[in-house]
Each structure stands twice: as C-alpha cells, then as structure tokens.
C-alpha cells in the first residue's frame, strides 16, 4: 500500500485486472478495476478517442492535479497506458475508487437524503474546493457538479475530476452536443455562470462558486436542475435568461422549516450573484469553508453519528 503514496507517470495495462464498466462520460469510459500489486480497487478513466489530447498533455495536467492531495479531494494515482495498440495507445487516469458513486447517483437511488447528510456533503465539498483554490496558482475545477462529487464507503464526499474540463473539448456529453461555452472551457452548461455567455470569457474562482450554488440548489431541493428540459432547448434558454439574472426557483426552498436551511438558501443566492466579485470565496475569513464549519454542517453533523 505504501506504493500508493507515489505518483506514477505510467501504470501499465498488465497491472490492472477485473475491469467492470461504470459509465460513459464526456471524459471517456470509466471502469472499476483491481490493481494487482497494490491489492485495492481503483477507478480507471480512459480518455475518449474523439479527443485530440496526447499522453504528454494528459501527463502535464496530471502532474498539476497530483498536488491536490487532500482529505476531501479524490486521489489521483497516475497515468494509465494501454500499449496493446502501439500506433495509438489508450491513455487515462488511475484514481481512488469511491464505493458509493456520485451525489447524482445517490439522489436517484434514495427517496430522501437526511438533512444532516446534505449539510455534511456541502461542508466537505466546500473544504475540498477551498484546498484547490488555496494552491499556488489556484487550481480551478471548472466542472463542479453533482456527478463530480463522489461518496466513499461512509458517505464522506470528495471533489473529483478537477482540472479535467479541458479534456471534454471535442467530446459530446451524454445525449447532447457540447455548446460553444463547453467547447471553450469544458464544464457543464447548466452549471456555467452568466459571464460564461459573454465574449471574451475567462474563468475565475467565482466560476466554481457559481457552480457550487447550483449544487446547493439541487441538494436542497432534491432535484437535478432542468432535468425535464431537452438539451437543445435548455442551451438556448440558459444563454438568454441566465445573463439577465434569472436563476432556479427558490419558492419551495423558502418554505422548508428545517433548522438553518434558510441560512443556506441565503448563502446560495450570494454564490450565484451575477457579479462574480460579489460572490463569496472558498478562501479567507469569510469563506464558504469557514461558514460551513460554524454553520449548519457543524451544528447538524452530530445527527449522523448519534446512537
């Protein structure tokens, strides 16, 4: 197991066995597999052949990602290389395997997520994002969403796929073509901030904060945002309405009579502010991470563990 503390620039196909398909995503194909030498299950993400990125480019990005070793960030072990086809080797990432899948999966599988668990997940995500933004230079996620928040065996949440949004360029999201905004910086359309629809657009830490607000809305409401709107229509609607200041409805959220939920709703509205400068940060004395520690997560976390 000590070997897992290192970063491997090449993990060969020979060391990986027992491939089990998990999903097909914009990045490529995701498998659960077994590393024979380490004796643990890993998540294997094989880059889609439709992308134009090389092993060298992926390695460069992975080295930056390797700096993000933190309790609430999914661990990257190294680069997977399958040289079965020597002319065009398949490459990908070998990462920590998270037993309970994504937050998106959890919301589809259970009828009700306890409020204490919802707050704890938001707390863990804030801590993970705070760490990424505290690096020098800050590591922007640029695709923070329900599907990139993963849950381990005890439902602790970790941020995943940070820094990989650029590898979605030239690929299609499941069921829909990528928009111009997604092509340029990656990300997922419904999580993009209003400034992403302007030209020119350069992502900032506020980009991730806006995405966090959409995660908050989904977790509080128990719904996937815009899940009932066809992808083609959604793209057009968001490009018109989000820059005008329109946001998901909070009418039902404001009726929830649960301890501190309204504090979260107010914070969520600050996080999706039209002016990126007015959004709170994941860093500093007034950061989202500090709010989470002293706010609902800190007060309700004990409910998960009381006997």
Automatic annotation (TrEMBL):
Species assigned in the record: Anolis carolinensis
What protein am I looking at?
Protein kinase domain-containing protein
Biological process terms in GO annotation: signal transduction
GO CC aspect terms: cytoplasm
Show the GO MF annotations: ATP binding; protein kinase activity
What PROSITE patterns has UniProt attached to this entry? PROTEIN_KINASE_DOM, PROTEIN_KINASE_ST
Q: Where is the Protein kinase domain?
A: 16-292
Q: Which InterPro entries match?
A: Kinase-like_dom_sf (IPR011009), Prot_kinase_dom (IPR000719), Ser/Thr_kinase_AS (IPR008271), Ser/Thr_Kinases-Pseudokinases (IPR051681)
């Amino acid at each position: 197991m000590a070997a897992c503390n290192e970063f491997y620039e090449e993990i060969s196909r020979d060391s990986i066995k027992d491939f089990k398909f998990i999903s097909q995503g914009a990045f490529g194909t995701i498998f659960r597999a077994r590393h024979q030498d380490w004796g643990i299950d890993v998540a294997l993400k094989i880059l889609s052949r439709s992308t134009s990125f090389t092993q060298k480019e992926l390695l460069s990005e992975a080295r930056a990602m390797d700096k993000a070793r933190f309790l609430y960030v999914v661990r990257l072990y190294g680069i997977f290389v399958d040289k079965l086809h020597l002319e065009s080797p398949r490459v990908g990432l070998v990462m920590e395997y998270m037993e309970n899948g994504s937050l998106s999966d959890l919301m589809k599988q259970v009828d009700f997520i306890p409020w204490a668990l919802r707050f704890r997940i938001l707390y863990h995500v804030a801590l993970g994002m705070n760490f990424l933004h505290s690096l020098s230079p800050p590591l922007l996620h640029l695709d923070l969403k329900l599907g990139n928040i993963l849950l381990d065996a005890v439902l602790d949440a970790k941020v995943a796929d940070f820094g990989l949004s650029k590898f979605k360029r030239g690929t299609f999201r499941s069921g829909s073509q990528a928009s111009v905004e997604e092509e340029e910086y990656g990300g997922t359309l419904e999580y993009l901030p209003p400034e992403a629809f302007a030209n020119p657009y350069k992502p900032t830490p506020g980009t991730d904060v806006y995405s966090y607000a959409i995660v908050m809305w989904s977790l509080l409401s128990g719904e996937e945002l815009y899940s009932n709107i066809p992808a083609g229509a959604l793209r057009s609607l968001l490009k018109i309405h989000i820059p005008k200041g329109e946001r998901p409805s909070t009418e039902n959220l404001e009726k929830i009579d649960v301890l501190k939920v309204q504090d979260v709703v107010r914070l969520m509205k600050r996080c999706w502010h039209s002016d990126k400068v007015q959004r709170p940060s994941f860093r500093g004395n007034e950061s989202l991470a500090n709010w989470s520690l002293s706010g609902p997560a800190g007060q309700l976390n004990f409910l998960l563990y009381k006997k």
